[in-house]
Amino acid sequence: MTGSPDGNAADAPDGDGRADTFYAAVGGDATFTRLVQEFYARVEVDPVLRPLYPDDELAAAAERLRMFLIQYWGGPRTYSEQRGHPRLRLRHAPFQIDSAARDAWLANMRAALDALDLAPAAEQVLWDYLVSAADSLRNTPG
């Protein structure tokens, strides 16, 4: 999977729900829903990430991530229909994301991904993207 035409891997186009997408190959909505549920269960108790979310925002943030990942990997375009272009860097600009936040995000996402028990090749593709996306969102030294 390559990035968008402007080179930003985090904003790559989706596949409109076609059967030949990564989204379909790994189990579709159910897989990405579970990934996000597993991830946010960890975020709720993470000392680095939890303070970034107001109490009333956690569920909404989880839904946005779920919709984004589904669209990114070739599922329905619900994210863009509801929120417009992803613009991940712009949407994350108000938050101080340093190396500690990036590392915490990746540690929690790694544990969530491990819980899915995907085929190793699919897991590696997804993990490589997540690492790249997390790296691209760092906006604070440290």
Radius of gyration using CA atoms only: 14 Å
Q: How large a portion of the residues is in β-strands, by DSSP E?
A: under 5%
Protein structure class: mainly alpha
- Helix coverage percent: 55-70%
- The shape is globular
**How would you sum up the major sheet?**
none
Give the integer mean of the pLDDT values. Answer: 87
Flag low-confidence runs.
1-14
Total number of strands: 0
Distance between the ends: 30 Å
H/E order of the elements?
HHHHHHH
List the helices and strands and how they pair.
Blueprint: H1 22-25, H2 29-43, H3 58-72, H4 78-83, H5 88-92, H6 99-116, H7 120-137
Keywords:
mainly alpha; disordered N terminus; 142 residues
